[in-house]
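Handout, section B. The chain below has 353 residues.
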Amino acid sequence: MALTGVAGLAACGGGSHGGVGVGGAGGVGTAGGKPVVIDRRVKVSASPEVSLQVRDWQPPGSSTGPVFVLLAGLGGNARYFDSLAPALAARSRVIAISRRGYGLSDKPLPVKTATQYYEVDTLVADLKAVLDALGVRRAVLGGHSIAGNELTRFAGLHPERTQGLVYLDTTFDYTVEADSAGETVPDNRLLHEPRPTPDDGRSLQAATAFFRRNSKNWWPALEANLRDAIDIRTDASVRLNTPDEVETAMDTAAHSFSPDYKAVHAPSLVVTALPADNRDMFPWLELPLDAKTQKDAADYLRIFRRVAITNSNQLVSALDTPNRLTLDNASHGDFIMEREAEVLRAIQFMTWA
């Protein structure tokens, strides 16, 4: 199958479940009073040699806000923030990073263990290396989905470098099974996120159509995310450029890490996306639905919302923060685009230490 690892990419960049030419260093520049982005490669490791894809947004004038550093969720890359980053860059420098294994960043294969090179502490070391290389002393870190692990760990290890944290629909603890309050989650195959067929990888257009079908909305940032996540082969067919071993390593490592929130002392903002209908949760469902699927979808959605609210409350409590934004009728995959104005306002409302 040409397109593999689709679940991870869809979860971050194109789907609705939590569960899409790089130059040199360059200099600060502006164009017509608009933010300018500089594409960089930053070396973060010598053994194995790993360089990361970094997009460095420069504000049009003097920066009046903190430096923001943005990390995508599982399967996503720096291009996922192609809309939010320039919006934030009206006032601040904004750095979006493709973690190792994704986008145009290097992808070393695990050798000694199933998660080698992709443990949370390794990802945090990469993050620090990028900040060091770019001369960033302190930053507000924003992370989507599994990136919450990196935010929490970095803030605990490097409090002097952490000006603030923005948790973008992250999970409180990926090692803990969600509590469905005794209810059985419906197991209806129509509610399972579709897997790609060989035809879905026959061309860039076919792949784009596949991810579009699995998305609540299709935004330019999602298309850019997808383009940096695939290789186009000589016969014009495409495949995701993250090897299956890397996808597994990242997913396993993320779900084996239990965060220590007691070590976090930076101002924090918790943003939660709550799905409210089938379009938020199951965009691939074709109408009309049979009665069983309609009931199963409603039950699944009701249970998911309760779990998501509990999870959000746990995160807010653990961080001891009064700062939260709950977005109803929103999809995990694209809420920072669909509800960008609200997310941006909440971030800019914060008083960062």
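Note. Residues 115 and 252 are 7 Å apart (CA to CA). Compare this with the example in section A.
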